[in-house]
Specification:
The complex is a heterodimer of chains A (308) and B (191). Chain A has 308 residues and is an alpha+beta fold. Helix content of chain A is 33%, strand content 24%. Classes of the chains: A alpha+beta (308), B alpha/beta (191).
């Protein structure tokens, strides 16, 4: 079996901070990336869905059509893009999906919820590393109406469910005009033409599941960071986000693949260390707070300075 | 008994696409304002339905104030979810909703209406009173009444939380973040 890829999409293109709409056409148009972390991350997802389902999956009743569209889209993308790992056989509405990585086979009737072990979005999400979010579009607005969110970067789908785009992203500490431009752009995303962007943050402690529900478990680490721990404990966190139009429901599917790399690993790439150092040095205070690194930013800058 | 602290109302905007006017008034909406609104709706010659919400004080007999205008329904605020879905869903296309009531009632009605499919140009709100009344504990998901203090101990899980100004219409509550040694975490998705 072909080895899963090593991948870390480094997001910084310049030597100074610049918040911009960095959306690009997704080519090839596949919203799913399989990486070497697949077995561990899918196992962690499934553990979270088992033990904290109320925190990790929410869906409003009107999203059933959109959820099945996601099943349709992703089973096809997985079987076409990764035929050595996934297979899909269809006979009318009778579908069989095979996950060779995990040795699992599912036979179900497309469109019938009861033939799957989980809600459709939740089920297909348990086969990929990405978090999956559905936003429905109505009255020139986008609403977060369903999602599987196992690896949040300090936000809660339990609270945000049902919110409009501008309500979810308030308060944005910079450039409200840009946020509005992004919203209008998303309203016009067309089926068959997905887009992608990279977003980054930093956290202390190697942990994908950063839920505000458990802030008292992972939050204090940032206040006790010492210089000798910066290299191994501080994680550079990147989200590879894709957005695709679901033509039947006219909803938008957002996929979020989260990558972590410690600073100790990152500095092995000198160009990355150089760019991150200069971006952190020029980052406005408001943005630093928003990205969760205001408390220890200087410690990270001091660490990176050794590699300039 | 009537509440002496009545809230003044201005007229709603009657839009050309409206083919039926459905008005919801709360306990504190001033009689004079409600009467003026009903008169303007009646002048359009489209059907008018008037719903009253009993928010705290029992409502006076409407005929004593508004003569022959019938009341379609009287709803108790605590049980708005019961029956309102069906009532709103059964309204004809072109129905416009006008909410002259407390913020709490208005948010409940608007949420239900939007879930059914009413658009923003079909709902107008003149609300009064405290805008937010509940806080959502992010730790245990229980919803509690807001007090004057923004920091409180969740009576369900015992965590110290701080009420933010981030509001969820779906939950009708603001978000209460966990405090750790006076520190909060306020993240947002993917920005």
């Amino acid at each position: 079996m072909k080895t899963l890829q090593q991948r870390f999409p480094f997001p910084l293109e310049e030597d100074q901070f610049r918040y911009s709409n960095n959306l690009k056409p997704l080519n090839p148009p596949c919203c799913i990336q399989l990486t070497q972390e697949y077995p561990d991350e899918v196992a962690e997802k499934r553990r979270l869905l088992e033990t904290h389902s109320e925190r990790c999956f929410k869906a409003l009743p009107q999203t059933s059509l959109a959820q099945w569209e996601v099943v349709d889209l992703m089973t096809h993308q997985l079987s076409v893009t990764y035929p050595e790992y996934f297979a899909l056989d269809k006979d009318g509405d009778s579908w069989v999906f095979q996950n060779h990585l995990l040795g699992e086979t599912y036979a179900f009737t497309f469109g019938v919820d009861s033939t799957l072990p989980l809600a459709p979005l939740n089920w297909i999400g348990s086969h990929v590393q990405e978090d999956l979010i559905i936003m429905t579009q109505r009255d020139e607005e986008l609403y977060l109406d369903a999602g599987q969110l196992c690896f949040p970067s300090a936000w809660s789908i339990a609270f945000d469910l049902g919110m409009a785009f501008h309500e979810i992203h308030q308060p944005v500490p910079w450039n409200l005009e840009l946020a509005e431009k992004i919203r209008r752009f998303l309203l016009r995303v067309e089926a068959g033409q997905p887009w992608t962007r990279l977003n980054w943050a930093m956290h202390v402690g190697k942990r994908l599941h950063l839920a505000p529900e458990t802030f008292d478990e992972w939050g204090p680490a940032r206040y006790t960071l010492t210089p000798d721990k910066v290299g191994n404990e501080v994680q550079f966190r990147v989200e590879e986000q894709c957005v695709a139009r679901l033509p039947g429901s006219q909803s938008l599917l957002f996929t979020i693949h989260t990558y972590l790399i410690s600073l100790a690993e990152l500095v092995n790439h000198r160009e990355w260390a150089h760019k991150l150092y200069h971006v952190l040095a020029t980052l406005p205070d408001s943005v630093a707070r928003y990205k969760g690194l205001a408390v220890y930013r200087q410690q990270v800058i001091d660490y990176l300075e050794k590699y300039q | 008994m009537t509440n002496p602290s009545r809230q003044p109302l201005t007229k709603f905007q009657v839009k050309s696409h409206c083919r039926k006017h459905v008005l919801f008034t709360g306990t504190d909406a001033m009689d004079e304002g409600v009467a003026a609104i009903l008169s303007e709706f009646t002048a359009t010659e489209f059907p008018v339905e008037w719903n009253r919400i009993e928010e705290h004080f029992p409502l006076s007999n409407p005929s004593e104030v508004f003569g022959q205008m019938p009341v379609a329904h009287t709803w108790r605020h605590a049980s708005l979810d019961c029956g309102l879905h069906s009532y709103l869903r059964n309204q004809p296309i072109g129905t416009c909703l006008y909410l002259a009531c407390s913020w709490s009632s208005a948010r409940s009605i608007e949420r239900i209406a939007r879930e059914i499919g009413y658009g923003s140009d079909e709902i107008q709100i003149q609300a009064y009173g405290q805008r937010y009344t509940q806080v959502f504990c992010i730790s245990c998901y229980h919803i509690h009444p807001l007090t004057d203090s923004s920091v409180l101990t969740c009576p369900n899980c015992g965590k110290t939380i701080e009420a933010s100004d981030v509001y969820s219409r779906h939950l009708d509550a603001v978000l209460g973040y966990i405090m750790v040694d006076n520190h909060l975490e306020k993240g947002t998705p993917s920005c």
